[in-house]
Amino acid sequence: MSDSARKYVTELIGTFFLVFTVISAVSTKAELAPLGIGAVLMVMIFAGGHISGAHYNPAVSIAAFVRGRLDSSDLAPYIVSQLIGSTLAALLGLWMFDNTAPDKWTGKPLGMALVVEILFTFALAYVVLNVATSKDHPDNSFYGLAIGFTVAAGAVAVGAISGAAFNPAVAFGVSLTQLSPWANIWVYWLAQVIGGILAGVTFKALNPSDA
């Protein structure tokens, strides 16, 4: 298997387990859903970080591209691999669970969801860039824990506002499984792309010597 194929398959596997954990935890109303989601992201990052960088999130891939740590030739294949992993997780979720999407966001809830998804997608991508790509943290042993706990913290803080996706692949998966209405997906994707771009730009501004 080529190095490129290894990276793309790793992204697919990690995204699958992240999205399926989200779908299963939310569908079963697991009390420890934020911890479980953060934990599975952490272990999948430790499992695949040495192969692909373990993005498992198109917004993180966009941030890594803006920051200069993902080649333009890899950006689209990474995102496609992540969305395939999300789709497979959603198909399994559709078979296992019977969900009904809530109403779409309107008015103030829509604005609140947009704001918190931008903020915590930024936080997630910003943490990834600083702990997993910075020259000041070579071969560190804490990056997976830091990234996983960023997601867990965001899920606790704003899960009741937006569903705490912070990830276009997660947003796609929960839409497919009717945990979120399709009418809301543009809010997720717009906010998450903005958050990823802002994280990449911010990292470069604060670390001008870290090319």
Automatic annotation (TrEMBL):
One cellular component (GO) term of this entry = membrane
| PROSITE patterns membership | MIP
Give the UniProt subcellular location, in the record's own words: Membrane
Tell me where the transmembrane regions lie: 7-26, 32-54, 75-97, 109-129, 141-166, 186-206
Q: Which Pfam families match?
A: MIP
Record keywords = Membrane, Transmembrane, Transmembrane helix, Transport
The primary site where this protein sits is: membrane
Q: Which GO terms describe its molecular function?
A: channel activity
What is the protein's name according to its record?
Porin
Native organism is: Nocardioides marmorisolisilvae
Q: Please spell out the taxonomic lineage of the organism that makes this protein.
A: Bacteria, Bacillati, Actinomycetota, Actinomycetes, Propionibacteriales
